[in-house]
């Protein structure tokens, strides 16, 4: 997805923001364009906007651009969250977490009255799972947790390589909350709800990258233009 297409999707999402809103700020390259454009609108006079970032990277970007920030402790209910997705299906179920911020992203999104997703239209899939499913895991007992994830995923009809995400420094990638991530290459996930329920039975799993029943609107960008989908989408994929 080119930067220009990302920016087009982000620009459409900015149209959802109104003066006085508390806005969840997503993480990732597409969400970063939204933060840039929102900051521009604030400088142009969009008043009383307060952002709640989903990662330390987004916090640093928003602070640098002059967006007023707060936490969910200060504003436990948000008007809107705008974020990206790694995959999304016709029911607006998603896989997220490629950037490693899935736990905070899910907390912020579920605290929001409306969730708008911005993505490349190629992220729209018939069946989730081509993108490896991230799981945020407590570091303690990692081996035991991984074994139980493999067992319960198989019971839910999903098998594939489960790998510990590594950082550029050659050490395990650490999330902003001090956890690690398992990337699960399950392929087709025929029953996302069933898999999500099964994985949450594992004590060491903090959160899964399956975002189900969370998105209200998806803004998908492609060379031919922008498509806006809602939860009753019935078009061709």
From TrEMBL:
Active site positions: 105 (proton acceptor)
Positions contributing to substrate binding: 27-30, 83-86, 96-99, 123
EC number per UniProt: 5.3.1.6
Key word Nuclease present: no
Keyword terms: Isomerase
CDD domains: RPI_A
Any one biological process term the GO annotation gives: pentose-phosphate shunt, non-oxidative branch
GO molecular function: ribose-5-phosphate isomerase activity
InterPro entries tied to this protein: NagB/RpiA_transferase-like (IPR037171), Ribose-5P_isomerase (IPR050262), Ribose5P_isomerase_typA_subgr (IPR020672), Ribose5P_isomerase_type_A (IPR004788)
Catalytic activity entry: aldehydo-D-ribose 5-phosphate = D-ribulose 5-phosphate
Stored Gene3D superfamilies: 3.30.70.260, 3.40.50.1360
Pathway in which the depicted protein is active: Carbohydrate degradation; pentose phosphate pathway; D-ribose 5-phosphate from D-ribulose 5-phosphate (non-oxidative stage): step 1/1
Superkingdom of the source species: Bacteria
Subunit relationships: Homodimer.
NCBIfam families: PRK00702.1 (NF001924), rpiA (TIGR00021)
Family statement drawn from the similarity comment of this UniProt entry: Belongs to the ribose 5-phosphate isomerase family.
Biological role stated in the UniProt entry: Catalyzes the reversible conversion of ribose-5-phosphate to ribulose 5-phosphate.
Protein name: Ribose-5-phosphate isomerase A
Organism of origin: Candidatus Filomicrobium marinum
């Amino acid at each position: 997805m080119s930067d220009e297409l990302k920016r087009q999707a982000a620009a459409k999402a900015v149209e959802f923001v109104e003066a006085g809103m508390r806005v969840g700020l997503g993480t990732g390259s597409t969400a970063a364009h939204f933060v840039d454009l929102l900051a521009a609108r604030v400088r142009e006079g969009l008043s009383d906007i307060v952002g709640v970032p989903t990662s330390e990277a987004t916090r640093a970007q928003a602070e640098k651009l002059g967006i007023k920030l707060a936490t969910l402790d200060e504003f436990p209910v948000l008007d809107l969250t705008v974020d990206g997705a790694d995959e999304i299906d016709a029911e607006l179920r998603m896989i997220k977490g490629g950037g490693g911020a899935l736990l905070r992203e899910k907390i912020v999104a579920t605290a929001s009255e409306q969730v708008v997703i911005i993505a490349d239209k190629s992220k729209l899939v018939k069946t989730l799972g081509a993108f490896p499913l991230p799981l945020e895991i407590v570091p303690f007992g990692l081996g035991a947790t991984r074994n139980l994830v493999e067992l319960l995923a198989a019971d839910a009809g999903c098998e594939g390589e489960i790998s510990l995400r590594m950082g550029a420094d050659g050490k395990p990638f650490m999330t902003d909350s001090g956890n690690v991530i398992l990337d699960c290459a399950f392929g087709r996930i025929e029953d996302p709800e069933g898999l999500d329920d099964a994985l949450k039975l594992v004590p060491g799993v903090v959160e899964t990258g399956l975002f189900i029943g969370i998105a209200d609107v998806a803004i998908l960008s492609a060379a031919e233009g922008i498509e806006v989908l809602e939860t009753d989408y019935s078009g061709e994929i």
